[in-house]
């Protein structure tokens, strides 16, 4: 089927997206072809636009369309608070909650002995520079509650201890969570961090 | 976050794809931004190319890049055999099996009283034209084994009866299927259509 080659090429590319396999990529492409004018062409334009403009913030590692992202450039954000996250997706999740008014630092992953990821492979040197150079009073570690995330948190605490206040997100029962469905580690953490009512 | 507007627009568009929601769209877009050169730009180019070239075959309704699709234009395909399918996805599934050497006719859906889909909303008039005009000896109904699919099959049989041989795909136990996991209807169909060994 020679004349399907462009369509097949698109299916192959779509199948490389996380969460899509060959079957769902075919389904998505058929849907796109049916909605050529409404969806396929706008999506092509939007992707070309993002490919042209997207870049990492030189300061914090967030993804945006300028060398310094909108959060770093925003004067209304508290300069003293720095929230350290693993990934841009985590930054976006924090921003959706809308509760944090400081700035961010995206590490770009976690330390991992297994995958040979050291501090210099992450944005950790840049973090130390920022703590030294900016007027930061508190570093909030918002790393994932995984082994690699906690290892990375410990490493950062080691590096920054005594130079700035370091806090981390509270661990405990999630809002709406049912004890029966929680793992032992979460229950232990919640019990150890219990609060007087 | 003004400078994320292009990225947000892309996320909104991606979330309209079947199988992707807001969360997986965000994940896909972050993945695309990380692989800007390798994936995002090629995907944008490929989509623009498909948006420009994709069209429905005037003869059978298949999706391709010319007015007559590669299958209809292929002299080596048997002219006497016509396989009727609901959807382009079904045609692609038949082609992947590689066993059918005739041509196709894509209905573009099924008859449905509930959704007010009549014969003229589908490519059924065109099917009758083709059976009258082309040298077709056998029409193979490869419609889905759903109520709407079977209603549509019965309607086509009514229209074509006596003018051409009409067959349908066999129903029974799928290859690799376990009886314990099959529904009663499939077991009934398989038992009724049992074959001497």
UniProtKB/TrEMBL annotation, chains A, B:
<dbReference type="InterPro" id="IPR023627">
    <property type="entry name" value="Rcmb_RecR"/>
</dbReference>
<dbReference type="GO" id="GO:0003677">
    <property type="term" value="F:DNA binding"/>
</dbReference>
<dbReference type="Pfam" id="PF21175">
    <property type="entry name" value="RecR_C"/>
</dbReference>
<dbReference type="InterPro" id="IPR000093">
    <property type="entry name" value="DNA_Rcmb_RecR"/>
</dbReference>
<feature type="domain" description="Toprim">
    <location>
        <begin position="80"/>
        <end position="174"/>
    </location>
</feature>
<dbReference type="Pfam" id="PF13662">
    <property type="entry name" value="Toprim_4"/>
</dbReference>
<keyword id="KW-0863">Zinc-finger</keyword>
<dbReference type="GO" id="GO:0008270">
    <property type="term" value="F:zinc ion binding"/>
</dbReference>
<protein>
    <recommendedName>
        <fullName>Recombination protein RecR</fullName>
    </recommendedName>
</protein>
<dbReference type="InterPro" id="IPR034137">
    <property type="entry name" value="TOPRIM_RecR"/>
</dbReference>
<dbReference type="GO" id="GO:0006281">
    <property type="term" value="P:DNA repair"/>
</dbReference>
<dbReference type="GO" id="GO:0006310">
    <property type="term" value="P:DNA recombination"/>
</dbReference>
<dbReference type="InterPro" id="IPR006171">
    <property type="entry name" value="TOPRIM_dom"/>
</dbReference>
<dbReference type="InterPro" id="IPR015967">
    <property type="entry name" value="Rcmb_RecR_Znf"/>
</dbReference>
<comment type="similarity">
    <text>Belongs to the RecR family.</text>
</comment>
<keyword id="KW-0479">Metal-binding</keyword>
<keyword id="KW-0234">DNA repair</keyword>
<keyword id="KW-0227">DNA damage</keyword>
<keyword id="KW-0233">DNA recombination</keyword>
<feature type="zinc finger region" description="C4-type">
    <location>
        <begin position="57"/>
        <end position="72"/>
    </location>
</feature>
<dbReference type="Pfam" id="PF02132">
    <property type="entry name" value="RecR_ZnF"/>
</dbReference>
<dbReference type="Pfam" id="PF21176">
    <property type="entry name" value="RecR_HhH"/>
</dbReference>
<keyword id="KW-0862">Zinc</keyword>
<comment type="function">
    <text>May play a role in DNA repair. It seems to be involved in an RecBC-independent recombinational process of DNA repair. It may act with RecF and RecO.</text>
</comment>
């Amino acid at each position: 089927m020679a004349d399907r080659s462009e369509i097949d090429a698109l299916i192959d590319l779509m199948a490389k997206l996380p969460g899509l396999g060959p079957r769902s990529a075919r389904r998505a492409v058929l849907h796109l072809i049916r909605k050529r004018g409404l969806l396929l062409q706008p999506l092509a334009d939007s992707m070309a636009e993002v490919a042209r403009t997207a870049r990492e913030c030189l300061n914090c590692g967030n993804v945006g369309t300028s060398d310094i992202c909108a959060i770093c450039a925003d004067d209304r954000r508290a300069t003293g608070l720095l929230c350290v996250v693993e990934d841009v997706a985590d930054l976006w999740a924090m921003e959706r909650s809308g509760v944090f008014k400081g700035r961010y630092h995206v590490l770009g992953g976690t330390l991992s002995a297994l995958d040979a990821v050291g501090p210099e492979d992450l944005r950790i040197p840049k973090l130390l520079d920022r703590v030294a150079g900016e007027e930061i009073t508190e570093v909030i570690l918002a790393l994932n509650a995984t082994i690699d995330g906690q290892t990375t948190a410990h490493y950062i605490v080691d590096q920054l201890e005594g130079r700035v206040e370091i806090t981390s997100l509270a661990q405990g029962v999630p809002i709406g969570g049912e004890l029966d469905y929680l793992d032992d580690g979460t229950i232990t953490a919640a019990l150890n961090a219990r609060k007087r009512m």
